[in-house]
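Sorry, explain these tokens?

___
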Amino acid sequence: MTRFPSPAQEGTLNPPSHYAGVPSFALRFRFTRGVQPIVVLLCVCGVLLFLYLAHEIAEGDRWSLDSAILLALRRPGDLHTPIGPLWMQQSAIDISALGGFTVLWLLSAVVVGYLLLIRRREEALLLAISLIAASLLNAGIKELVRRPRPFVVPHLANVSNASFPSGHAMLSATTYLTMAVLLARLQTGLWARIYIHTLAIGLVLLIGLSRIYLGVHWPSDVLGGWCLGAAWSLGFSLLAASRLKPAPAR
């Protein structure tokens, strides 16, 4: 007697998608190739915007919006006190520390060690080279542009070097977004990858905004750091897609 499959079995045996029978790695390859032009465009836009900001600042131009934003974040008549509840200043200091030299390098060492532990040596090497090169680039641009720190409001954190681009904004974008690219490639679930990227982007934004709130950077410093750091990480993601092996499919 002929036995017919149940409706549930029919859906399993005959999936409605026209990709039925196509290996998962082939689908991921097609998706990656389709996204690459968008990533390249975003990378180029980030670099061009950064170059525009750097050129204008090097020429000595100032934007009234920079000063207006910094003044708007302080209480009228008392520029030493930021707006918001009392705990917000300490929170801004704590968040800012997540983009500091010590935290970034300690965290980078931990992630590189983890990648070596799971035998992803090429990822560990690329991450280390990327972070070292980005740190040297940031220091070189600061020395080249030599923009003074904001003077319209008192600083609520200690600073010692030039202002443009924001090292916290640029290096946090380079570090956290690059780590997100690597860690997401080790995941096979879509939502896990989305969660990792969203967490990294949110953290980078908070770090940059904290530097403005503390009055130690002009908003354009942070914008320039975001642009160059994001472009750096996007370029790294293209390199990772072309050279590194994806996580094995389930």
The beta strands are 74-75, 78-82. The chain has one domain: 36-243.
